[in-house]
Amino acid sequence: MPKRMTDSTLAAALQTPRTEREPELRAQAGNAPLIQVEGLRKTYKTARGTLNLFEEMNLRVEPGEMVAIVGQSGAGKSTLLHILGALDAPSAGTVYCASTNVAALSAREAAAFRNREIGYVWQFHYLLPEFTALENVAMPLLARGVRKTEALAVAANWLREVGLEDRGAHRPGELSGGEQQRVALARSLVNNPRLLLADEPTGDLDEITAGRVFDLIERLHKSHGLTSILVTHNLDLAARCTRALRLESGRLIALAFPPLAGSTSGKNLS
Question: Which among 17, 34, 155, 265 could bridge 138 via Cys, Cβ 3.0 to 4.6 Å?
Answer without folding.
Answer: 155
